[in-house]
Amino acid sequence: MAKPIEISNNILAKYVHPQERAITDRLYDNLVSEEYCNQLLENYKLFTLENELPDYMGKCLEVNTYQMPKIYDIIRELSEKISMTAPTAYVYESYYFNTSAEGCEEPWIQISTKTLENFDEDELRFVIARELAHIKLGHMKWEVLTEEFAKNIDIAKEFITIPAYPAASRQMFEIYADRFKLISANWKRVSEYTADRCALALCDFDIKTAISAILKQILNSKLLQKSTNISSFMRQTENIMSFTTNAAKFTRMDEDFPYGPFRLKELISFASIYGAQS
Predict the structure, then answer these.
(1) Cβ-count burial of 70 within 10 angstroms (0-12 exposed, 13-18 middle, 19+ buried)?
(2) For a tag site, which of 4, 93, 116, 236 has the least CB within 10 Å?
């Protein structure tokens, strides 16, 4: 596994969140070694992926020219826009509004039926563009590595012990696991900010549509999205930050996905600068 990828020649490079490179370097430095990371990726490919993918594909509908061709065209058009091969996409039944990129070497996009039923075409373009950005920028590899490494830490604390001090050994692994969780969660949040920024750029800086799509994803409700006052919703960041205990800080820092008000605040700030330049 090479060092974190260089994105200077990537068409999306100018929209990457300014903290992404530093936090990716930090994540890389905490993953033990290149050899170990390569083994984690190989294990994922041979065991996790091979175990889950056939079962998953058997329960979903593949998007193609014959099935949901409008979604297929959106994916192809956005992929061409950022010079990448269009990934395979699947639709699955779910109560949640969800669109996500999965896999690693040959990633795919999965879209829930609830998303298709409740998002208009422009909103769909935005959420699909987010996942294409994750793929284009190489986020899938780091997503897999964080998940596989966390699993290995959990396994290690059960089998690797200090002679005569098993309790101390377990506590040591738990402390290390908590530390790695905070590092990986920080990377995941920053990568989501990047995906929002890139998707907004790919969708011609249509901030109104982006906000609508993000609110639907966050609230999982078309009714709540329509009832939201943006200024009031964003002020919830102040309430969240008013909790200053260590427990509250840990809760904020171990979230894999940014809180909704923070996502909107970041994206609107980005749009106010880059949207004017577009």
Answers:
(1) exposed
(2) 93
